[in-house]
Amino acid sequence: MKKLSLLLPALCCAAAFWGCTKAESDTVAIGAVFPLSGPVANYGTESRDGALLAIEEINAAGGLLGKQLTLIAEDDEGNAEKSLNAFTKLTTKDKVSFILGSSTSGATMSMTQQAQANKVILISPSATNVNVTNPGDYIFRACFIDPFQGVVGAEFSFNDLGSRRAAILYDGGADYNTDLAKSFEEHFKTLGGEVVANEAYQTGDVDFNAQITRIKSQNPDVVYLPNYYNDVALQAKQLRALGITVPLVGGDGWDTLIDNAGEEALNGFWSAGFNADTTDPKGQAFVKNFLAKYKRPASQFSALGYDTMMLVADGIKAAGTFDTAAVKDAMAKIDGAYVTGNIRFDADRNPIKAVEILEIVSQGDGKLVNAYKTTVNPN
């Protein structure tokens, strides 16, 4: 009896162990590295929530290859060093093989070399710097690239707004801003326009009156602001205060500007990866489901976060395995309809997709909204 009494706990422990192992084997963790706090936290929290909605829907439909998904999200605060630390934690401690993130280009690029070396699929919803995918074929993105945004801004300013004299005000210490500024300037000149002022500032600046005074002296008919929404909110106010009433044009960094600016943002136009007023059935379903789950409207970052997770899921389904070597090859061949439009990848795993131009307008009650203006399709 004594030997049996000693054996029973051991058998129970073994049973508990194998039961735990079986439970764990029914779940696959997906990693995420996003700015969940800090100055661009809105981008990260929106993308994370979009990805969580995608996972909820995937799991409700039976999961992937018989397994349920779970998301392990880490906060990088938009900081490149913290992004790499989060990547290391996710891949060594949590043993993930798929990572979504980050939201900004610098933070994402801090992880790409390690992702490629370790055969971890890394896909960013919104890192637009052209160099993001350079390290290799395990790196993807769901958004368009900076040069395309700059070209779109120049095309819209020249052709749709009839502008011929452009001024640019940009953060000279950030890759996103400088890349958009450069591509806008080059293409605007190619179209026959003139860049009459090109003014830079440094990250963290809040007073732009010196640059704006020089811009005003050149009498531009459009001002290009390829900056993030928090800077643009201040810049728009200071531009209008100094009497510059011409159209303002920017990139996807303007997302949520309407929540952070007043009527000075009117006559503003920006290139977006998603329009919540979409008439596409897939997009409409996403908008409805996101609102029901989170009690707030969907944004382009939530839509891109959702698509990022769905692109990974579709790659896994097509490959029929969670092996990343097979999945990345399957993802590279994707050509299908997603919430942010039809997506297919070029040779560098950048999506070939349309860009929508949204205009900031007033509803009449003082509330600003983003209204669809036009679509620019890729060549």
List keywords for this structure.
single chain, 379 residues, alpha/beta, Rossmann fold, 7-stranded mixed beta sheet, 5-stranded parallel beta sheet, 11 helices, 15 strands, 44% helix, disordered N terminus
State the low-pLDDT regions, or none.
1-23
The rounded distance between the terminal residues' Cα atoms is: 80 Å
Biggest sheet architecture: 7 strands, mixed
- What is the number of helices? 11
Structure described in brief:
The protein is an alpha/beta fold.
Overview of the molecule:
With 379 residues, the chain is α/β, with parallel strands linked by helices. It folds into two domains: 22-144 and 278-348, Response regulator (Rossmann fold, 3-Layer(aba) Sandwich); 147-272 and 356-376, Rossmann fold (3-Layer(aba) Sandwich), CATH 3.40.50.2300. The chain is 44% helix and 21% strand. It has eleven helices and 15 strands. It has a seven-stranded mixed beta sheet, with helices on both faces. α10 packs across α11. The longest helix is centred in the N-terminal third of the chain and has 24 residues, at 2-25. It is globular. 46% of the residues are buried. Mean pLDDT is 92; it is low at 1-23.
